[in-house]
Amino acid sequence: MSEEKQKDYEKVELTSAMTELSSLNPAEGKAAMMSQVDRAALRVLKTLREGDPDTLQKGTHLSQIKFVMEIMEQCKEFRDGQFTRLVRQHAEDIMSGLENLPKRSKELKEEKKRKAEEAKEAASQAKSEDRARKIASGGDGSPIDEEEEEIEEKEPEFQYELAEKLCIQSVVRHYDSKLDVLRSVQLYGRHSTVDVGIPPHFLYTIEFSVLIEDAIRALIMGSRDIMTRRVYNDTDPDADEEAIRKVLRDKTRPLLDVVESGFGGWGTSQIEAEKRAKQGDEPKKKVKKEKKGGGLFSKLLGKEKKEAAPKKAKKAEREAWEDVMDIFQVSQDKGEIFFPKTFNFSILKYLSGMREKAFQGEVDRIIQIAEQAQGGSTAKGAVARALEQSFKNNDQNFFELLILNLLYTKNSIGLDEVQTACMGQKLDASRLPLSVPELGRRPVTYAEQIIKLLKQPAEPRVLKNCLEFFFESILVLHLIKFEKEFKNAQTHLETEKENLSKPLQGVADGVLGLIDRVLFARQQARETGEDTSMHTKDTIHHTIGKFMDAYENMYEKMKK
After folding, report:
1. Where does this protein have compositionally biased stretches of type Basic and acidic residues (predicted)?
2. Tens digits of per-residue pLDDT, 4-36?
3. Any residues with CB less than 8 A from the CB of 485 and at least 6 apart, and which?
């Protein structure tokens, strides 16, 4: 291929890929988007394999490839596990192709020089033989020509990059499959926060799939010595990808052992750090050996006491899990995920070995019981007994993940049934570190969302959904256990309403007034033992209707 045609080929392929990705439209559906991404990625990969490596590493062509990578990064915002995995795989392949360009460039240059070197080979060989004869005979004692310098090829510090990359991909797919089982194939339920644009529990987000990939990568790359002994030594660094994959198929268990041990170790570090944080004010006994410092909770909560450093003490090395926790924290600060401080990495070790069939079977069993009892007076009791039995038959982590699945998948089990299950464990966040914070965040998060929707302003349908979910959480959640969350929600509405226009401040005042009425009615029912829930629900429904009548008129005027 001529040089001009080569440039035209690269330009055509990369421009076509950019056009393909620029025309992505979520409205056309997942299948169409996946097909477009696939076509665009294959064009780029073909160009990286066949194009001029020197040209592709600079100028317009490099900018075009970077543009493709940026679009693929944005594609991760489309919340679908299958779509995200496709994008991630293609992005990894393109990045590998980019990293391979210097090697291809070197190979092509060596090929061009080969013929010229062959012409000089005979003369060079004769010269070398003559020099060897002089040295053998003692010659005149002159040193060897400077041209003949011993060339030592330096072995790379780590020669298993490809095997490491394939191991990371394998573990990421393993965890993706487990998360898919947890999330189930069903849609989010009616009582899910997703319906009003609030981020769901972090285990259900695409962002978490990306974050756990970062954690897995840090774990595997931080365990190169043990991975080399247990996994990489049986692979040939110079073999192709398929040959290495074939060897790695028999190394699944040793590979997962390293990752699971890492998650378990991180979890232990967190527990120890939490204990130190809680005991920070207690008098310490004198010990000869200084205890190790550092950890998640001491770092995040800032409660760990610093002791005088010994003389010439070396700076403590930062642990890999602390770097990963920073990544998670940044994602939470951006509002991508809600990450409860009670979460422990050890549950990720449990998730890796979760019994998928047993878990799915238990989910289906409880949903079936709820559907059979739906509408009857004994419905809640039947679900409660089913969950109680599940807790007795399974371990704590299994039950925790089961509760979350029931809360987030489309079924006839509502927030009240989930709350009842948690009350069976006395709403102890230390025993249910995922589902209890998930329940507790709802009043405050809904209050924050109400203010956001009023500021936008949002469509009446969306605001109405949010108001209904908000008051459902206040009506259902335990009155005493979540009292702090109810007060925080009220405080947020009272503080932020001043930033609204006067008419919308009236809506916020109405919401605050209804909160007071609902909480008072619940407290009165608790003291008298009278069941006033139906009357309170009617009051909520009627009052929200009045809010929406007023808001719809405002919304129409604001649109004009």
Report:
1. 101-133
2. 445 566 777 888 888 878 778 777 777 778 888
3. 440, 441, 442, 443, 444, 477
